[in-house]
Design goal:
Length: about 190
Amino acid sequence: MLQILALLGAIGAFDYSVTSSPAETKAHEIIPTHIELCTVGPQYYAFELVTTKNIPGTGLAIGRVQASVSGNSPFSVQLAPDGSYAYDLHVSLQRMKAPLQGNLVAWVTTTEIDRIERMGALDANLQTSGRVRWNKYIVVITLESSDDPDQKQWAGPIVMRGMSRSGMMHTMVGHGALQEENCAAYGYGN
């Protein structure tokens, strides 16, 4: 197997380089030429934001939330003090312009919407970053009249929303054997 990987690296199939002939190459001699590829997380940790089309100019907008583990964690997961997963979130919107009035603000809430935390206002590039300490959560982008960092809950209209991959998972408890809940009806389906 090692010889096959070394051979593929030698011919450039995976952008790996080897220090000698493929047959003589040891595992520690296979060097990725693009080391940043080793730190790219799987697409599983990203999810789409869906426009509500309630705000003019957002009908064709697309958004994405990239969840990652903090760089100071030596593991592939990071836990909050209560045992929940902790993620760093990066929100980005495309195909829309910043509003002329008001501020786009990102929020994170539980799937039951019983706890809400403000992530922050989106910048001129329609991006912001924040942190979440819940296993299942929803990211909500709203149009607020002002940028108040002490605001506890959104007051403006919802522009976009998206649910974490873990939030989309649920059991069929409470459903009949041949029934299924249509999550796509709520805008959370792929």
